[in-house]
UniProtKB/TrEMBL annotation:
<comment type="similarity">
    <text>Belongs to the NipSnap family.</text>
</comment>
<dbReference type="Pfam" id="PF07978">
    <property type="entry name" value="NIPSNAP"/>
</dbReference>
<keyword id="KW-0809">Transit peptide</keyword>
<dbReference type="InterPro" id="IPR051557">
    <property type="entry name" value="NipSnap_domain"/>
</dbReference>
<dbReference type="GO" id="GO:0005741">
    <property type="term" value="C:mitochondrial outer membrane"/>
</dbReference>
<comment type="function">
    <text>Protein involved in mitophagy by facilitating recruitment of the autophagy machinery required for clearance of damaged mitochondria. Accumulates on the mitochondria surface in response to mitochondrial depolarization and acts as a 'eat me' signal by recruiting proteins involved in selective autophagy, such as autophagy receptors (CALCOCO2/NDP52, NBR1, SQSTM1/p62, TAX1BP1 and WDFY3/ALFY) and ATG8 family proteins (MAP1LC3A, MAP1LC3B, MAP1LC3C, GABARAP, GABARAPL1 and GABARAPL2).</text>
</comment>
<dbReference type="GO" id="GO:0007005">
    <property type="term" value="P:mitochondrion organization"/>
</dbReference>
<dbReference type="GO" id="GO:0000423">
    <property type="term" value="P:mitophagy"/>
</dbReference>
<feature type="domain" description="NIPSNAP">
    <location>
        <begin position="156"/>
        <end position="253"/>
    </location>
</feature>
<dbReference type="GO" id="GO:0005759">
    <property type="term" value="C:mitochondrial matrix"/>
</dbReference>
<dbReference type="GO" id="GO:0030674">
    <property type="term" value="F:protein-macromolecule adaptor activity"/>
</dbReference>
<keyword id="KW-0072">Autophagy</keyword>
<dbReference type="InterPro" id="IPR011008">
    <property type="entry name" value="Dimeric_a/b-barrel"/>
</dbReference>
<protein>
    <submittedName>
        <fullName>Nipsnap homolog 2</fullName>
    </submittedName>
</protein>
<keyword id="KW-0496">Mitochondrion</keyword>
<dbReference type="InterPro" id="IPR012577">
    <property type="entry name" value="NIPSNAP"/>
</dbReference>
Length: 255
């Protein structure tokens, strides 16, 4: 009896092994494998859904207060860009901040802003204009362009991908090659992946002169040898994706 139960247990464990995915032990975190090593920048992406009747007033106070924080050397942060969504979720503002020095810089900025009377008044006024808000903390992919100020006029596309958990390294490996196909028109602005907030999120930020230019550049990529293959392999990694077309505010460093 012991022998038969031992055999059955071995058979059960063999059968289970057929259905269990083997995972190689990782030697390091995603953030260390995929992020830029030469910088310790942390990014914050904010989505603010504004009451439709308040959007103009919201933009006005943002354009008055946010550039002051951006320009003040007292704060180790930079306003990378600030936009309104044109196509996608309506009456939405999107802000992207960079913290030079990672989490300690973020903490320093937050602590200093708590003592900034003008900013506290701005937050109070802003809260009356909002329906909802959310944010994410991000790192930038090592192989993507550094987001630097650019002159306009441009429209911006923020393509957001919710990946299947466990596929971020795979995504990085494919896009490290794919980004080379998208440099001809200087359209690549920045690529990021989430650390806090909604996880396994990837954001690609692109700039185009207009919607037709966007269409032409994206179509041209399909004529490049290798692009189709990379799309074929990355699509199964995605659970959900979203595209926002955004217009920069007048004070945005990305115009």
């Amino acid at each position: 009896t012991w022998t038969s139960s031992s055999n059955r247990s071995r058979e059960d464990s063999w059968l289970k092994s057929l259905f269990v995915r083997k995972v190689d032990p990782r030697k390091d975190a995603h953030s260390n494998l995929l992020a830029k090593k030469e910088t310790s920048n942390l990014y914050k992406l904010q989505f603010h859904n504004v009451k439709p009747e308040c959007l103009e007033a919201y933009n006005k106070i943002c354009q008055e207060v946010l550039p002051k924080i951006h320009e003040d050397k007292h704060y180790p942060c930079t306003l990378v860009g600030t936009w309104n969504t044109w196509y996608g979720e309506q009456d939405q503002a999107v802000h992207l901040w960079r913290y030079e020095g990672g989490y300690p810089a973020l903490t320093e900025v937050m602590n200093k802003l708590r003592e900034n009377k003008e900013f506290l008044e701005f937050r109070k006024a802003r809260s009356d204009m909002l329906l909802s808000r959310k944010n994410q903390l991000l790192l930038e992919f090592s192989f993507w362009n550094e987001p630097v100020p650019r002159s306009g006029p441009n429209i911006y596309e923020l393509r957001s991908y919710q990946l299947r958990p466990g596929t971020m390294i795979e995504w990085g490996n494919y896009w490290a090659r794919a980004i080379r196909f998208r440099q001809d028109g200087n359209e690549a602005v920045g690529g990021f992946f989430s650390q806090i907030g909604q996880l396994y999120m990837v954001h690609h930020l692109w700039a185009y002169r207009d919607l037709q230019t966007r269409e032409d550049i994206r179509n041209a990529a399909w004529h490049k040898h290798g692009w189709e293959e990379l799309v074929y392999y990355t699509v199964p990694l995605i659970q959900e994706m979203e595209s926002r077309i955004m217009i920069p505010l007048k004070t945005s460093p990305l115009q």
